[in-house]
Design brief:
By secondary structure, the chain is of the alpha+beta class. The strands form 4 sheets. A 6-stranded mixed sheet has the order 1-2-9-8-7-6. Strands 13-14-15-16 form a 4-stranded antiparallel sheet, with no helix packed on it. β6 and β7 form a beta hairpin.
Amino acid sequence: MRVETLLIGVLIITPAVGADNSWVADIENTTGSATSESTSNRSSQAETRDKEYLEQFHLTKLSLNSLDVNGEWYAQIRDPEGATHDVRVGQFLGKHFGKVEKIDAEAVYVAEVRRGRNETWFLREVRIPLSRQPLEEFDLYRLNLKKVGKDEKGQAFAEIIDPKGRHHIVRKGDFLGIEHAEIFVIEPEGISSGGGYLPKCPLSNEIMKRSLQIMDAFLRSRDDVDWREKAYKLLGWQWPVIWENAMLEAANQGWIQPNFVLGLLHSNGHLVSDDPNLAAQYYKVGAEKGYLPATVKLADLILNEHIHSVERQEAAKWLYEVGMLYKKGHRVAKNQHRARRYLEAARERGTWMHLNELQEMAPE
């Protein structure tokens, strides 16, 4: 492990190569730079407000497991007991009044209030870097799930081969793909993660590889022209038909992202028929595997369209699930107005359990 103290008072804690996710450093004796902000105000305010859960731990005991963007940056931080917590800018961490000032693609930046040797207070910024695992350097669809099994303790594991031919053993709670997706479930047919589903069937032919590259460009691009140009270069002038057939093949093999893409295409009428009910069926595949974008899109369709391909009680379940995500701010930006819309729609479909959730919310 290497600790660097910069002149501007930023402490960078870098995990050693091959180390586990928990980073440890002796930061008690590190000096920082004084700032113009009133640090005494920060410490006095801490005495009047309710302390947050992660303030009971030293920063050295916390590890940053993933970052994601759903309208804003947020981090998933694991405490010493192994529990994961969603953290956003403005929340507090650590035992020294540490406030999260910034979150980006590489790290979380926390401003701590410290007392110097001369009894003066100063602010010190601590940078908690993203703890990357080996399989996080590859797109999910480039990984090959070779085997699923159980160890001597009965816990599920999976053997994955990366594009370089290296073999990796992963378990629930590990991370996959460049989106740093946490593994939720390991089952005989495949792995469910926050970034999608990895089935036990490789997609290896050249047309499929190129089609998956187009899918990736489609999902990432904000410009409709860019991904279409890439599709033309990769598959030629007949690319719409070839790409749709490849997505259907991949979807039939259980891949979440192709199902999600087909849902987007049918809900918007891009290249294919405008069919919200068919789109809902494709979204449902991802939602059932815990893929958040598919879950939200499915709930949006149910809320805004007349969907008969999802039965009433099941529709209420998806509306309730998304409503609670927005109510709690879990994996999406907290939004009480949207939460109320989803929960009211769920209640209208006759599910009694949602009444209490609505009563707990302040009236608009």
